[in-house]
């Protein structure tokens, strides 16, 4: 969250119908994986866990072993 003692939080409400999936991640994740790759991998997997697992494989192939500065969570709408 940075080095400051004060944290400024930005928030935005997302309408349910606006997105089918959401990948919330830190810069240590997205700066190594292209958005195009995120979309392509997402098209192949229907569970958030599988999508994130596959994205982590891409990430791991590009970062050094001592890089631990990444966080991500995947969320998908449940199909009924």
Spell out the blueprint of helices and strands.
Blueprint lengths: L20 E5 L1 H4 L4 H10 L3 H13 L11 E5 L4
Antiparallel strand pairs: 1-2
Task: Describe the 3D structure.
The protein is of the alpha+beta class. It is 34% helix and 12% strand. The chain has three helices and two strands; from the N terminus they run βαααβ. It has helices at 27-30, 35-44, 48-60, and strands at residues 21-25, 72-76. It has a two-stranded antiparallel sheet. The radius of gyration is 14 Å and the shape is flat.
Low-pLDDT stretches: none
What shape does the CA trace take?
A: flat
User: Helix amount, in percent?
Assistant: 25-40%
Average pLDDT confidence is 84
Strand content: 5-15%
Widest sheet, order of strands: 1-2
Task: Report on the biggest sheet.
Answer: 2 strands, antiparallel
CA-based gyration radius: 14 Å
Helix-strand topology string: EHHHE
Total E-strand runs: 2
Compact description:
This protein is α+β, with helices and mostly antiparallel strands and 80 residues long.
Keywords:
12% strand; alpha+beta; single chain; 3 helices
């Amino acid at each position: 969250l940075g080095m400051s003692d004060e944290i400024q939080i930005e928030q935005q409400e997302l309408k349910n119908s606006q997105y089918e999936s959401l990948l919330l991640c830190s810069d240590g994740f997205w700066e190594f994986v292209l958005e195009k790759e995120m979309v392509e991998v997402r098209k192949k997997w229907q569970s958030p866990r599988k999508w994130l697992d596959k994205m982590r494989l891409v990430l791991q192939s590009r970062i050094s072993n001592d890089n631990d500065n990444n966080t991500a969570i995947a969320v998908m709408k449940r199909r009924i």
